[in-house]
Amino acid sequence: MAYRSVLDDENIHSTYDKVLIDIVSYVFHFTITSPRTWQRARAALLDALGCGFETLRESPEAVALIGPIVPNTVVPDGFRLPGTSHQLDPMKGAFDLGCLIRYLDHNDAFPDAEWGHPSDNIGAILAVADWQSRVSLSIGQKPLTMEAVLLALVKAYEIQGCFQVHSELNKAGFDHTILVKVASTAAVSWLLDLSENQTLDALSLAWMDGTPLRVYRQPPNVGSRKGWAAGDACMRAVHLALLTKNGQPGAPTVLTASRWGFYDTLFEGQHFRLPRPLGSWVIESIFFKIHAAEGHAASGVEAALELCEQLRVHNLSPERDIMHIQVRTQHAAKIAMDKQGRLHNSADRDHCMQYMIAVILLKGYTICAADYQNDSPWARDPRVEDLRKRIDLVEDQQFTAENHDSLKQSASNALKVTLRDGVDLNEVVVEYPAGHPWREDAVKMVKTKFEKNVVKWFDKDEQDVVLKLASSNVEEFKKLTVCEFVDTFFKQ
Predict the structure, then answer these.
(1) What average pLDDT values come out for the chain (492 residues) when binned by 10 residues?
(2) Is the alpha carbon torsion for 344, 350, 352, 355 positive or negative?
């Protein structure tokens, strides 16, 4: 690992907070040596784009958010938003791609003390890299390659994920997308060829913004903002990097300043602690969502599918024969996924484990993104609401501990059905659902998921080109220019 501290550079302002210096040193001097890291980085990128195509297909409300602010505007040398015909400025492009990747909550996740989705950063990274490359080509300079995109991706994942390990922002009521803004600011500053001094300035501006409230993810205010909050963070990161590139200064002690700094103002005097030196740990530990379910609920989905088989074997009907279902789960799932009463919108439904389990048991097979939408028949089916009332989530302290244990890293849920005649079916426990980093088949499953999303969005000729690119070896992939890659997904 090539890694040194920018403290060694006498040109760096020595009073900058050490956390900022560590981030900048990592972004400018870390190199990737592991083939597995490159492989998982490409898988993460393709998975995120596939999630975007799924959103384009399934969510009219998300589609209404994308495109130029002024209708029919085509930005010269602009970012070509994958899966669409929009050519956008880098800020709106970052918002739109970040929104498409995140909206259906089907993109990857990194669970720890704080919860988050590092692929949110791809909105900023790809928009800036493509725009920069097109500008470079227009003036006769070399464009960026996909190697730079993957390297920026790995670094953004690492920054966000490592901050999540000890930073329980949710307990203070704050939203984790501040970490997207910080990680994306660092990554795009590097892509924009800012100096290390300038990147310190840009990072300080990101922390200076403070953090959004988590209110839009929790009852009774759950709403669509949770789908575009990551896009908003990406857009802000690009804006801050561009402001810095144009000469705006930062605040060296933005975190540690007495009374007015981030720590004293928002974090009750606590300081951020990173769990390890920044490297490639997060991309190698990322959880890919194979099921259309929030990450903490993925094992609950698999357990519900196993329960479907138990019900079939015993010729039982969920609506007629089930009296109660107990779900043993982790603290994070209990907080984010336990909902009774009316579900007001798709954002409510895709963060309700009772809804997921009820729909799966009634369907007899897995839930999909369309099942959460307002026009889904399941959203209006009284049997779903009746079954939801019979499902209770309880925190299992061991599940919570093992979810946070770096040696275990489980994502467990356990479902136990009690029938109306008082008989209990065998409890179904799932620790490591599909897509978990400990599953050897995770990357293969991601490839299959991506291919399905491509086939459902692109026509046959477009599919062939896209799938050929996705099947190239990693070394060939890294040599592609960013424009070549993005043009593959652009709809003329």
Answers:
(1) 41 75 97 95 97 96 97 97 98 98 94 86 98 98 98 98 88 91 98 97 96 90 93 98 97 95 91 92 94 90 96 94 97 90 91 96 94 94 96 96 84 96 95 90 94 96 92 94 97 86
(2) positive
Cα 203 to Cα 309: distance, rounded to the nearest angstrom: 51
Report residue 131 CA to chain centroid gap: 22
Q: What is the pLDDT of residue 485?
A: 97
Question: What does the chain come to in residues?
Answer: 492
Token reading at 108: 């990857």
Nearest Cα to Cα of residue 44 among 236, 386, 282, 213: 282
What is the number of H-type helices and E-type strands within the chain?
22, 8
User: Quick one: DSSP state of residue 120?
Assistant: G
DSSP string, 223-253: -THHHHHHHHHHHHHHHHHHHHHTT----TT
Q: Please give the Cα distance from 327 to 143 (Å, whole number).
A: 52
Residue 60 confidence (pLDDT) = 94
Integer Cα distance of 492 and 243 in angstroms: 32
Q: How far apart are CA 284 and CA 332, in angstroms?
A: 22
Residue 294's pLDDT is what?
A: 86
**Which pLDDT score is estimated for 171?**
82
Identity of residue 349 = R
Instruction: Report yes or no: 419 and 317 within 8 Å, Cβ to Cβ.
Output: no
Say what the pLDDT of residue 6 is. Answer: 45
Give the H/E segment covering residue 111. strand 110-111
Q: Measuring CA to CA, how many Å separate 469 from each of 20, 46, 478?
A: 37, 10, 11
pLDDT of res. 324: 97
What is the dihedral sign for C-alpha 304, 306, 309, 315?
negative
Spatial separation of the C-alpha atoms in residues 489 and 85, rounded to whole Å: 9
Bridge partners of 414, per DSSP, are 328, 429
User: What are all long-range contacts of 456-463, with beta carbons under 8 Å and residues at least 24 apart?
Assistant: 456/53, 456/54, 456/57, 457/53, 457/54, 457/56, 457/57, 457/83, 458/53, 458/83, 462/491
Give the three-class secondary structure for 319. helix
Residue 416 phi/psi, 5° resolution? -130, 125
Q: What is the CA radius of gyration of the chain?
A: 23
**pLDDT at position 4:** 38
